[in-house]
Amino acid sequence: MKEDICEFIEKNKVIAICRGTYGEDLINLVSALKEGGVKLVEVTFDQGDAECLTKTAEAISLLVKEFGEEVRIGAGTVLSIQQVQAAYQAGAEYIISPNTNPEVIKQTKELNLISIPGAFSPSEIISAHEAGADFVKLFPVRALGMGYVKDILGPINHIKLIATAGVTPENLPDYLELGFSGAGISGYLTDKHLIKTGDFNTIKEHAREMMAIVNQAD
Protein backbone atom coordinates (compact mmCIF):
# COMPACT_ATOMS: atom_id res chain seq x y z
CA MET A 1 0.00 0.00 0.00
CA LYS A 2 2.77 2.41 0.97
CA GLU A 3 4.40 2.35 -2.49
CA ASP A 4 1.00 2.88 -4.12
CA ILE A 5 0.40 6.04 -2.09
CA CYS A 6 3.84 7.40 -2.95
CA GLU A 7 3.09 6.88 -6.63
CA PHE A 8 -0.36 8.43 -6.21
CA ILE A 9 1.15 11.55 -4.64
CA GLU A 10 3.77 11.88 -7.37
CA LYS A 11 1.15 11.43 -10.08
CA ASN A 12 -1.51 13.79 -8.70
CA LYS A 13 0.88 16.28 -7.05
CA VAL A 14 -1.67 18.72 -5.60
CA ILE A 15 -2.51 18.25 -1.92
CA ALA A 16 -5.42 20.43 -0.78
CA ILE A 17 -4.95 21.57 2.82
CA CYS A 18 -8.22 21.62 4.78
CA ARG A 19 -7.93 23.56 8.04
CA GLY A 20 -10.81 24.18 10.44
CA THR A 21 -13.54 22.82 8.16
CA TYR A 22 -15.72 19.97 9.40
CA GLY A 23 -18.95 18.07 8.81
CA GLU A 24 -21.12 18.83 5.80
CA ASP A 25 -18.94 21.76 4.74
CA LEU A 26 -15.94 19.43 4.60
CA ILE A 27 -17.85 16.86 2.53
CA ASN A 28 -19.00 19.56 0.10
CA LEU A 29 -15.48 20.99 -0.11
CA VAL A 30 -13.84 17.67 -0.88
CA SER A 31 -16.60 16.78 -3.34
CA ALA A 32 -15.86 20.00 -5.24
CA LEU A 33 -12.12 19.32 -5.15
CA LYS A 34 -12.66 15.80 -6.45
CA GLU A 35 -14.91 17.03 -9.27
CA GLY A 36 -12.12 19.44 -10.18
CA GLY A 37 -9.60 16.62 -10.28
CA VAL A 38 -7.82 17.07 -6.92
CA LYS A 39 -7.49 13.65 -5.29
CA LEU A 40 -5.22 14.38 -2.32
CA VAL A 41 -6.61 16.06 0.78
CA GLU A 42 -4.81 16.89 4.02
CA VAL A 43 -6.92 17.45 7.14
CA THR A 44 -4.91 19.42 9.67
CA PHE A 45 -4.78 19.25 13.43
CA ASP A 46 -5.65 22.74 14.68
CA GLN A 47 -3.16 22.96 17.52
CA GLY A 48 -5.01 25.93 19.03
CA ASP A 49 -8.16 23.85 19.48
CA ALA A 50 -8.22 21.74 22.66
CA GLU A 51 -10.45 19.23 20.86
CA CYS A 52 -8.28 18.94 17.75
CA LEU A 53 -7.37 15.29 18.37
CA THR A 54 -11.00 14.19 18.29
CA LYS A 55 -12.25 16.65 15.67
CA THR A 56 -9.48 15.91 13.17
CA ALA A 57 -9.75 12.15 13.62
CA GLU A 58 -13.50 12.33 13.07
CA ALA A 59 -13.03 14.49 9.96
CA ILE A 60 -10.50 12.07 8.48
CA SER A 61 -12.76 9.11 9.21
CA LEU A 62 -15.73 10.90 7.62
CA LEU A 63 -13.79 11.56 4.40
CA VAL A 64 -12.39 8.05 4.19
CA LYS A 65 -15.88 6.59 4.48
CA GLU A 66 -17.36 9.07 2.00
CA PHE A 67 -14.72 8.93 -0.73
CA GLY A 68 -12.91 5.62 -0.29
CA GLU A 69 -9.90 5.40 -2.59
CA GLU A 70 -11.17 8.11 -4.95
CA VAL A 71 -9.55 10.72 -2.70
CA ARG A 72 -6.54 9.80 -0.57
CA ILE A 73 -6.70 11.41 2.85
CA GLY A 74 -3.77 12.47 4.99
CA ALA A 75 -3.30 14.29 8.28
CA GLY A 76 -1.54 17.64 8.53
CA THR A 77 0.16 19.72 11.23
CA VAL A 78 0.99 16.48 13.01
CA LEU A 79 3.25 17.32 15.96
CA SER A 80 3.07 14.30 18.25
CA ILE A 81 3.07 10.51 18.31
CA GLN A 82 -0.46 10.66 19.75
CA GLN A 83 -1.63 12.60 16.70
CA VAL A 84 0.05 10.11 14.35
CA GLN A 85 -1.78 7.28 16.08
CA ALA A 86 -5.13 9.09 15.99
CA ALA A 87 -4.71 9.83 12.28
CA TYR A 88 -3.77 6.22 11.57
CA GLN A 89 -6.78 4.86 13.45
CA ALA A 90 -9.04 7.25 11.53
CA GLY A 91 -7.75 5.97 8.19
CA ALA A 92 -5.17 8.57 7.14
CA GLU A 93 -2.58 7.31 4.66
CA TYR A 94 0.07 9.99 4.98
CA ILE A 95 1.34 12.21 7.78
CA ILE A 96 2.40 15.81 7.13
CA SER A 97 4.14 18.08 9.63
CA PRO A 98 5.47 21.65 9.57
CA ASN A 99 8.66 20.46 11.27
CA THR A 100 11.04 17.51 11.42
CA ASN A 101 10.53 15.38 14.52
CA PRO A 102 12.38 12.03 14.31
CA GLU A 103 9.95 10.42 16.76
CA VAL A 104 6.94 11.41 14.64
CA ILE A 105 8.69 10.09 11.52
CA LYS A 106 9.57 6.83 13.29
CA GLN A 107 5.99 6.26 14.47
CA THR A 108 4.67 7.09 11.00
CA LYS A 109 6.97 4.54 9.38
CA GLU A 110 6.19 1.88 11.99
CA LEU A 111 2.52 2.23 11.09
CA ASN A 112 3.41 1.90 7.38
CA LEU A 113 2.19 5.39 6.56
CA ILE A 114 3.82 7.93 4.24
CA SER A 115 6.00 10.42 6.09
CA ILE A 116 6.10 14.07 4.91
CA PRO A 117 7.81 16.22 7.57
CA GLY A 118 8.51 19.91 7.07
CA ALA A 119 11.94 21.48 6.68
CA PHE A 120 13.40 24.91 5.94
CA SER A 121 17.16 24.57 5.60
CA PRO A 122 19.43 22.10 3.76
CA SER A 123 20.41 20.56 7.12
CA GLU A 124 16.76 20.06 8.08
CA ILE A 125 15.87 18.61 4.68
CA ILE A 126 18.69 16.09 4.81
CA SER A 127 17.99 15.23 8.46
CA ALA A 128 14.35 14.53 7.62
CA HIS A 129 15.38 12.33 4.72
CA GLU A 130 17.89 10.42 6.83
CA ALA A 131 15.24 9.90 9.53
CA GLY A 132 13.11 8.06 6.96
CA ALA A 133 10.87 10.68 5.34
CA ASP A 134 9.33 9.61 2.02
CA PHE A 135 8.94 13.26 0.96
CA VAL A 136 10.09 16.46 2.63
CA LYS A 137 7.79 19.48 2.75
CA LEU A 138 9.76 22.64 1.97
CA PHE A 139 7.99 25.10 4.26
CA PRO A 140 7.28 27.97 3.99
CA VAL A 141 8.43 27.88 0.39
CA ARG A 142 7.22 31.36 -0.60
CA ALA A 143 9.32 32.98 2.12
CA LEU A 144 12.42 31.23 0.84
CA GLY A 145 12.16 32.61 -2.68
CA MET A 146 12.77 30.92 -6.00
CA GLY A 147 16.50 31.72 -5.95
CA TYR A 148 16.96 29.84 -2.68
CA VAL A 149 14.95 26.91 -3.99
CA LYS A 150 17.05 26.67 -7.15
CA ASP A 151 20.28 26.82 -5.13
CA ILE A 152 19.38 23.97 -2.76
CA LEU A 153 18.08 21.72 -5.54
CA GLY A 154 21.60 21.39 -6.93
CA PRO A 155 23.13 19.41 -4.06
CA ILE A 156 19.80 18.07 -2.75
CA ASN A 157 18.35 16.63 -5.96
CA HIS A 158 17.96 13.11 -4.56
CA ILE A 159 15.22 14.02 -2.05
CA LYS A 160 11.57 14.29 -3.06
CA LEU A 161 10.23 17.71 -2.10
CA ILE A 162 6.72 19.08 -1.62
CA ALA A 163 6.34 22.88 -1.94
CA THR A 164 4.01 24.35 0.67
CA ALA A 165 2.79 27.83 1.73
CA GLY A 166 2.22 30.42 -0.95
CA VAL A 167 1.82 28.07 -3.92
CA THR A 168 -0.43 29.66 -6.56
CA PRO A 169 -1.46 29.01 -10.17
CA GLU A 170 1.23 31.51 -11.13
CA ASN A 171 4.17 29.76 -9.45
CA LEU A 172 3.09 26.10 -9.42
CA PRO A 173 4.51 25.57 -12.95
CA ASP A 174 7.88 26.83 -11.72
CA TYR A 175 8.00 24.39 -8.81
CA LEU A 176 7.00 21.47 -11.01
CA GLU A 177 9.55 22.45 -13.65
CA LEU A 178 12.24 22.52 -10.95
CA GLY A 179 11.37 18.93 -10.09
CA PHE A 180 9.15 19.16 -7.01
CA SER A 181 7.10 16.02 -6.45
CA GLY A 182 4.04 18.05 -5.53
CA ALA A 183 2.62 21.00 -3.63
CA GLY A 184 0.46 21.61 -0.59
CA ILE A 185 -2.13 24.30 -1.34
CA SER A 186 -4.54 25.87 1.12
CA GLY A 187 -6.16 29.27 0.46
CA TYR A 188 -6.74 28.97 -3.27
CA LEU A 189 -8.34 25.52 -2.98
CA THR A 190 -9.94 25.76 0.44
CA ASP A 191 -10.98 29.41 0.66
CA LYS A 192 -12.99 29.93 3.86
CA HIS A 193 -15.14 32.67 2.32
CA LEU A 194 -16.14 30.43 -0.60
CA ILE A 195 -16.97 27.62 1.81
CA LYS A 196 -19.02 29.93 4.04
CA THR A 197 -21.03 31.28 1.10
CA GLY A 198 -21.48 27.81 -0.42
CA ASP A 199 -19.64 28.74 -3.61
CA PHE A 200 -18.25 25.28 -4.24
CA ASN A 201 -18.39 25.75 -8.01
CA THR A 202 -15.57 28.29 -7.77
CA ILE A 203 -13.56 25.87 -5.65
CA LYS A 204 -14.14 23.21 -8.31
CA GLU A 205 -12.88 25.58 -11.01
CA HIS A 206 -9.81 26.42 -8.93
CA ALA A 207 -9.12 22.70 -8.59
CA ARG A 208 -9.46 22.24 -12.35
CA GLU A 209 -7.05 25.10 -12.94
CA MET A 210 -4.42 23.57 -10.68
CA MET A 211 -4.77 20.10 -12.15
CA ALA A 212 -4.53 21.50 -15.70
CA ILE A 213 -1.13 22.87 -14.70
CA VAL A 214 -0.13 19.46 -13.35
CA ASN A 215 -1.28 17.71 -16.52
CA GLN A 216 0.53 20.21 -18.71
CA ALA A 217 3.74 19.60 -16.76
CA ASP A 218 3.63 15.81 -17.29
Automatic annotation (TrEMBL):
Cross-referenced SUPFAM superfamilies: Aldolase
Gene3D superfamilies per the UniProt record, alphabetical: Aldolase class I
Assembly and interaction partners: Homotrimer.
Keywords of the record: Carbohydrate metabolism, Lyase
Protein name, UniProt field: 2-dehydro-3-deoxyphosphogluconate aldolase/4-hydroxy-2-oxoglutarate aldolase
Coiled-coil ranges (or none): none
InterPro entries: Aldlse_KDPG_KHG, Aldolase_TIM
Extent of the signal sequence: none
Family, per entry: Belongs to the KHG/KDPG aldolase family.
Domain of life: Bacteria
Molecular-function GO term, any one: lyase activity
Pathway(s) it belongs to: Carbohydrate acid metabolism
